[in-house]
Amino acid sequence: MDKSGIIKPVLDASYPMISHGKGIYLYDTDGKRYIDGSSGAITANIGHGVEEIADAMEKQAKQIAFVYRSHFTSAPAERLANKLASLAPGNLNWTFFVNSGSEATETALKVAIQYFQEQGIRTKTKIISRWTSYHGITLGALSMSGHALRRERFSALLEDFPAVAAPYCYHCPLKKTYPGCGLACGNDLERAIQEIGAENIAAFIFEPIVGAAGGAVTPPPGYYEKIKEICDRHNILTIADEVMTGMGRTGKMFAVEHWGIEPDIMTLGKGMSAGYTPMAATMVSDRIINVIRKGSKIVMSGHTFSANPLSAAVCGEVIDYMEKHELVRNAEEQGKKLMASLQDLQKKYPIIGEVRGKGLLCGLELVSDLPTRVPFSATHRVGETLISLCFKNGLVIYPAFGGVTGFEGDSVLISPPLTITSFQIYEMLRILEESMEELMNGLV
Ligand code: PLP
């Protein structure tokens, strides 16, 4: 056994070593080609090996790579913050830069609590979230995550923030059917608020489209309008976690735009740097900043690498590249083609229970019995097997397991870079179909 090395996700597993990437393709050191059908972890939005980014990186690194946020600001960080403010909905004009999505949601939690403290309201310290959700792996972010599998080991340290049913129509946690349900999942927030007390709740956090915990679970029409109305009525802030859905992934710059809602706080990560550097952000509205400005004037959070100039220059260039190549429009257009192709696949394979999502955030849910929508037992590892077969055949897709019962539910995400072409979708689908065929042969 090796005496040193990287701690890998599965300790003794062997992972291919990647030598380089170009566009949607990755190449390992044995010369095998993979289609990056999940943009890594829904991150490599502009594809791999983009020279403009490498050039911007080099230029900035030669100029100034690091300054500490409490001593100096930098032109790339200021420019990026202004750019994000010009793109974001509503009055989300202020950005706190961090290094990962987990730090972004954790900062959102702290800012929400601080907003009320600055006004002398000290009881509003809880953040309400939904089951079937993922907001990050650090303890505050995990406290907000409604993901039983990921919480289990650390439950003694976590807050019980998940309190509301997910808007997951395919497996409605409230056993109702849309539209006859009257948006019972939205009303479940009202129930939770009555139980916990609005005076104890600072914010409600949600992924506009549930990613890793459910596989592109998309709420029914009217849901977010209801949520926003309930939160506003109870003086509860809304936090849109756009770490996965933001930066064009769903065919709009931010997924909340699909429903026309303006959150009080919005988190970004993943596609913001498209994977070229670790960078994430918490965007905060005028209303919140004005209160803090009149109070302590200090947002009580921060990291050594916050607002790093090198990372900021990279993210700025990523946005320029997206605009130049109209990648949000491409995500919308190619997303429709991908969705249609996946629906065709669904007709062929009865274990595909649902195809869902928006833009290039697409989910496939596998079920053991189509009419009753019963999931496979977790021990069958059906989703995992499909992912492994795809990997063997040269296509990377992403797991979104445990959405149905917390432990059961085999969904996968298909989320290629936003640069994908129609031919590349065809290429990707051929490998997916070949892998489905192998999966079915193994199941019988
Ligand atoms: N929020 C959402 C919606 C995510 O999907 C993720 C990661 O998958 C996170 C937060 C955490 O981001 P990170 O892995 O960068 O800490």
Automatic annotation (TrEMBL):
The keyword Signal does not apply. Keywords: Aminotransferase, Pyridoxal phosphate, Transferase. InterPro entries: Aminotrans_3 (IPR005814), PyrdxlP-dep_Trfase (IPR015424), PyrdxlP-dep_Trfase_major (IPR015421), PyrdxlP-dep_Trfase_small (IPR015422). GO terms for molecular function: transaminase activity. It comes from the Bacteria. CDD domains: OAT_like (cd00610). Belongs to the class-III pyridoxal-phosphate-dependent aminotransferase family. PANTHER family: AMINOTRANSFERASE, AMINOTRANSFERASE CLASS-III. This is Aspartate aminotransferase family protein. The lineage of its organism: Bacteria, Bacillati, Bacillota, Bacilli, Bacillales.
